[in-house]
Amino acid sequence: xxxxxxxxxxxxxxxxxxxxxxxxxxxxxxxxxxxxxxxxxxxxxxxxxxxxxxxxxxxxxxxxxxxxxxxxxxxxxxxxxxxxxxxxxxxxxxxxxxxxxxxxxxxxxxxxxxxxxxxxxxxxxxxxxxxxxxxxxxxxxxxxxxxxxxxxxxxxxxxxxxxxxxxxxxxxxxxxxxxxxxxxxxxxxxxxxxxxxx
Length: 198
Prior knowledge:
With about 200 residues, the chain is α/β, with parallel strands linked by helices. The chain folds into two domains: about 1-155, Rossmann fold (3-Layer(aba) Sandwich), CATH 3.40.50; about 160-198, no CATH class. It is built from six helices and ten strands, in the order αβααββαβαβαβββββ. The protein has helices at about 1-10, 30, 40-45, 80-95, 110-115, 130-140; strands spanning about 15-20, 55, 65, 95-100, 120-125, 150-155, 165-170, 170-175, 185-190, 195.
């Protein structure tokens, strides 16, 4: 997942990072981090646990994670509740970078209000699935927050299919991060080797 890779990359640079799963309905990130049995955001908002209880350190000393938490019913969670606003302000004071991984804004418009507290926004789209109409609707929904958009991450992008009619030269090493944030050398090209992108 993009947010995990970004969090590990920043932590590797020496920054103190907190990654927060805000999808209380489908907490894939919490499951990916194997934190589904730990207390988290919902427990804090309900007053069941303190802030320190829900800041879980990962295998990287600079990276912490807050999952959605343990609760039978999370439907009452509100992204603009005073308790959540307090949480957001507190963690921003304790960490160099806080990454809030949110569900799709088109399905949960309340998250737009949450953007008031954010410094920057990164939009994640999925190639061949996210439509231009959806993006236009998203930008309209974001409205005055457009100036906070720092960039876009495109998932499922395959260079071999990006442009079958173009060629370019590439050489040296190509690096990437796996889902645990570990830097890996993928492949080596030579200066005279032509590769196609689609």
